[in-house]
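Checked the freezer inventory, then went back to the computational side. Two predictions to log before the end of the day. The first one is the construct we discussed on Monday; recording sequence and tokens without edits.
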Amino acid sequence: MDAKDAEAGIAGNVAIGRELGARRKFWALLLLHTLLTGACIACCVWTLSTLRSSISGSLVPGNAAPRKSELPFSKGIYLNMKKVSDEENTKLHFTVTWNQSMELNHESEVMVKFPGPYIFYICARVTGTNDTMGNLTLEQGKTLASITLRVENNNARSCVRHEGLVSLYEDAVVTINFFKPEDQKYLQLNVLRVGLQYMLGEQRFETPSDEE
């Protein structure tokens, strides 16, 4: 019985040793797998970052200046009518909503710095008796654009939109005027938004002098 007990004890110790060895091997393999997985992820991230930097560098010239804005450079002005006098023929007054390379002086005079084509667009609302009308004009020494504003529905609240193309001279004042006939005293220009937008972008072509 003593010999059998000894053999059983030895066999049990061997089995325990094998089990502990197997566990150590399992944890060692798990740790190695974790390390290899982390190394692969780090390698992939580094490779993608390097590839992205090389592609971006190849698309942008080395001497290119950083872009300040994604929007194209524009020149123009957008105005909101401030007041209308009770005179029949009146020069309109405005406040500036937005402007770039154009200025508003004395609330009524737009200073143009670049010669060439401009988009002239308005949003206006007039009130009065039905079928009464007045004329809105853009002038630079002479009338360059004239828009008829007619009251079609006395209860209408929406603005009427118009646009047109005008050619302006540099260093000259533009005014916007509203004319109404003497017999249409109830006609009122209540709302007016005016925009002037230069169409040649960053290009500028001076008007030839008289000596050329």
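The second is the one RB wanted added to the comparison set:
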Amino acid sequence: MSSVANTITQPPGTQTGAQTGSQTGSGTGAGSGSGTGGSGTGSGTGGTGGGSSTTSINQQAPAGGLIMTQPPQTASASYYKIAQNDFITFGWNFTYLIVQPTSLTVQAICGANGFTYPVGGASGDGVIPGTATSVVWDPYGYEQSPGVQRLAAESYTLRIMDERGATALGTPGMFNAYSGLKFALYKPKDPTPLSGEILDLTVEIQTDLSNLRMEVFGLQRWLCVLSPSYLCRNDRNLDGHVLRWLASPAASSCSGSLGFSP
């Protein structure tokens, strides 16, 4: 069965040795023999050895990847608000991963303007540890940084890739770039000031009240001018309350002041 090996090679060890020695001897004999033996010294140093580690991946193994857990892949399109203290969390689980990535880069790609925005990361660049299974994004905070491309209220694609980039696809046991999540961002509308509307409503009410006063005043004048007998002759259906008022001393006083009599 064929396999591919990812090998991390450590610097090889070195081994040295040295040994020196000397031996001297001398002997003399006279009559009976005597002699002295030689002496010798020796020294040596031993080395250290080093090896390498190897990870073998079956070529038949599936490519590594991830499954989104937040939001779930089965959920409908998610909508997120760009507002202060509104954070977005994306979460996932790894699948078929044999070789752990060194790092992951998370990005949001806007479908409308084609711009790529970094998502999260300690430095705001979208780079997180290769073992991470979630990332928290603050779109509002991102927009507060000077010189950044402002987020559009549009649809986005979430992309997650390892240090090999977005083109790393189909490699057995290793992380393959992901771009399967769609979501949308929106911005809340600014509240409309009510002061102008209240002012317009106040003017309208004042105008209506003024018109009503004019109408009431005109009615009072006509009620003072017309006599009860004339009203009875021309409008037999006039409300009895009006007739009673017309017959009252107040009505007589009013009509008298205008030069009319009932």
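For RB: Confidence is low (pLDDT under 50) at residues 1-52, 257-262. The radius of gyration is 49 Å. Let me know if you want it refolded.
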